[in-house]
Design brief:
By secondary structure, the protein is mainly α. It has a single domain, classed as Farnesyl Diphosphate Synthase. It has a two-stranded antiparallel ribbon. Strand 1 and strand 2 form a beta hairpin. The protein binds geranylgeranyl diphosphate. Geranylgeranyl diphosphate binds next to helix 4, helix 8, helix 9 and helix 10. The site of geranylgeranyl diphosphate has 16 residues, from helix 4, helix 8, helix 9 and helix 10.
């Protein structure tokens, strides 16, 4: 019987949603800051990063129990990044996920603080839960190190700084654009997969393969995002076309659509090859890579 990826994604998303609801309960959000946090964390989006974290853990040990706090942490960091990304000093977006952007509802100062809080609380919540679950402090430190490095000035934040240069119309080569995507998007995807695998007891060889898998799907995911911005018919795609105008360099503006689609396929195939040594069949990480290549939103 074929693997039902939609059902798999929905079930894992539900688990993440429930855990985030418990970590950040909306009915306890009394202050403006707390309301701003829950506004962006619930109901959230695809929950791709936490689902990858759970899937990587299941691939290694058959369970996602220890990975769940890390899954919530990467989603909280992702949520911080999109709140800040929408700010007037960054992309200056009015909407996110079909509703007004956080700063449009709570103001710029509170939105900035909500992002700051989500980034910091991600680590305190994760370490507290993992310690309670009996995970060793050494392993927790290793996971903190992987996630913080991916989020910070050598990862996502650096990628955002490169992205601002792309916004200014500075001409970048295709390699520079790919490197921006690696930093801005793939590094957090990589940290999601690696943290899940580490908490499941993966060995060094397995981690190397998963690192390569996630860098490839991460870059492919961002190129696919560019493609959907050009071909998509929803409001977000239209808004992003209008905002980018002719100025912003993206993979698609430099390489054109067909070559960009070919690159997404090539990276997806290479990512899947990295999974060959994992005996599990069906392998949800493989199915997620295919789903990301085929997605229409
Ligand atoms: C420190 C002020 C300050 C800003 C930093 C780090 C940062 C802002 C922004 C990161 C850039 C960023 C948002 C990268 C991710 C790009 C991306 C593909 C976002 C959309 O991810 P999806 O499709 O979103 O997974 P959903 O809505 O499904 O969660």
């Amino acid at each position: 019987m074929s693997f039902d990826i939609r059902n798999y994604l929905d079930k894992r998303k539900e688990i993440v949603d429930r855990a985030l609801w418990e970590y950040l309960p909306p009915d306890e959000a009394k202050t403006k800051l707390q309301q701003s946090i829950v506004y962006s964390i619930h109901p959230g989006g695809k929950r791709l990063r936490p689902v990858l974290c759970l899937a990587a853990s299941e691939l290694i040990c058959g369970s996602h129990k220890n990975a769940l706090p890390a899954a919530c942490a990467v989603e909280m960091i992702h949520t911080y990044s999109i709140i800040h990304d929408d700010l007037p000093s960054m992309d200056d977006d009015d909407t996110r996920r079909g509703k007004p952007a956080n700063h449009r509802v709570f103001g710029e100062a509170v939105a900035t603080l909500a992002g700051d809080a989500l980034l910091t609380d991600a680590f305190s919540l994760m370490t507290e839960k993992l310690l309670k679950q009996g995970v060793s402090p050494e392993l927790i430190l290793r996971v903190v190190s992987v996630i913080s490095e991916a989020a910070g000035s050598k990862g996502m934040v650096l990628g955002q700084a490169f992205d601002l240069e792309m916004d200014e119309g500075e001409h970048l080569s295709v390699n520079e654009i790919s490197n921006t995507y690696l930093m801005k998007t793939a590094k957090m995807i990589e940290a999601s997969v690696l943290s899940g695998a580490m908490l499941a007891g993966a060995g060094e060889e397995e981690l190397l393969r998963l690192k390569s898998y996630s860098e490839k799907i991460g870059i492919a995911f961002q190129i696919k995002d560019d493609i959907l911005d050009v071909t998509g018919s929803d409001d977000t795609a239209q808004e992003s076309r209008e905002k980018a105008g002719a100025k912003k360099h993206t993979y698609v503006s430099v390489m054109e659509i067909q070559a960009s689609k070919a690159k997404v396929s090539e990276l997806t195939n290479q990512a899947i090859v990295e999974l060959e040594s994992f005996p599990k069949d069906p392998n949800p990480l493989r199915e997620i890579a295919v789903w990301l290549r085929e997605r229409e939103e």
